[in-house]
Design a protein that fits this description.
single chain; mainly alpha
Length: 163
């Protein structure tokens, strides 16, 4: 399964979960022709096909005697190729850094949102605690009753029955 140039390591049968921020980053990156070309070259030069192609090329160059030892032209071609490939490696590293930055920015935004939500939950918990304490105070006041006095509940009854 290919997702904007990224393939699953397990093949097409496996579903790959891709971070939406990376999908958007890949979409933005794909808008540039230079980025698409660099991504394809980097993908090819990092493959075993690239290694096999070069092994065959060097064997043919030497085997068919395109030039004699010390292979000056082949050395120059390989040196130029190394210069370009090192540039593509740097481009690939920059791309990986950009991906990491996108993920870090998204994680930071998530942390900030969670912090805000946690603060709101703490405020709500404090209000619930205050209300619970107020309800407890009112309930405790009702349990004593309005006719209860410090002298005891019988003193108010005695006053009404003696007359």
């Amino acid at each position: 399964m290919a997702v904007h140039g990224f393939r699953s390591r397990r093949g097409s049968a496996a579903k790959q979960i891709v971070n939406p921020a990376l999908v958007e980053h890949a979409r933005e990156r794909a808008k540039s022709v230079e980025n698409r070309v660099a991504d394809r070259i980097t993908a090819f030069s990092g493959s075993m096909r690239f290694v096999y192609l070069h092994a065959i090329w060097f064997a043919c160059w030497i085997g068919f005697g395109v030039e004699s030892y010390p292979y000056g032209l082949l050395t120059m071609i390989v040196s130029l190729e190394a210069i370009f490939l090192s540039t593509f490696v740097l481009i690939s590293q920059n791309r990986a850094d950009a991906k990491r930055e996108v993920l870090a920015d998204q994680e930071w935004a998530t942390v900030q949102k969670e912090e805000q939500e946690n603060q709101e939950l703490l405020d709500l918990s404090r209000r619930i605690l205050d209300l619970t304490e107020a309800v407890h105070a009112i309930t405790a006041g009702r349990e004593r009753g309005p006719t209860d006095s410090p002298a005891g509940p019988s003193s108010s009854r005695d006053d009404t029955t003696s007359t």
